[in-house]
Amino acid sequence: MGTMIFAHRGASKLAPENTMPAFELAYHAGADGIETDVQLTKDSIPILIHDENVRRTTNGTGFVQDYTYEEIKKLDAGTWFSTKFSDTSIVALEEFLDWVHDKSIILNIELKNNVIDYKQLEQIVYDHLQKYQVLEKTVISSFNAASMERMKKIDPNVSTAFLSSKKVPDLPNHLKKIGVTGFHTKYRLLNSNLAKACRQHNLALRIYTVNRPMQMKKCFKLKCDGIFTDVPHLAKEYRKLYK
Ligand code: G3P
Ligand code: CA
């Protein structure tokens, strides 16, 4: 199998990240997968937003965990990107899964629990994925190693990945201890030794955020398992050229 192209927060160069327009554009661009970020509201509803604070990507202020779902749904999550998207709201995980579950596209659900370790996030997300029968086409990832250990206890068969933006010493053993089968890391840390080590230990290697043609070329040539890109439509073209 070649390098899978994941739309990072949806097609986030073309539409506001982690919103339905970004997911729809990713799907229509023919992305192999969609990556998105999950945090919990005050009433424990999983929603798709990258930051712990709503300030950057909505017209609100304050932390996600201080909003109820009903309150957060009223925020405008599009105008910061362009007035064209002024009627766009934050998406619940449920809403996203309802739209995506029967589509031929794989998923990477990133648990955003490395800053705020939301109680029960793993179980809540797992239950949603199970309800929509998408576990088999989903990789769950987190920068929080303890969270991935908890996820493995919920279901040892679920596909998981550890995220790190730093070099991890003794990577294969570290990942084995956590119990994950994948490693998601920054483009600048990618080299042939890392690709080789992951292959040798049967670990899936996926790279973020890969937006430039030369970066894509390197990922394709090193046969990385996946890339996360804001421009899936371009990545599809470059994969044809460089595979
Ligand atoms: O999951 C890959 C990538 O999305 C991790 O970094 O900050 O974009 O969530 P970030
Ligand atoms: Ca992410």
From TrEMBL:
GO terms for molecular function: phosphoric diester hydrolase activity. It comes from the Bacteria. One of its GO terms (biological process) is lipid metabolic process. Residues 3-239 form the GP-PDE domain. PROSITE patterns: GP_PDE. It holds the Pfam family GDPD. This is Glycerophosphoryl diester phosphodiesterase. It comes from Thalassobacillus cyri.
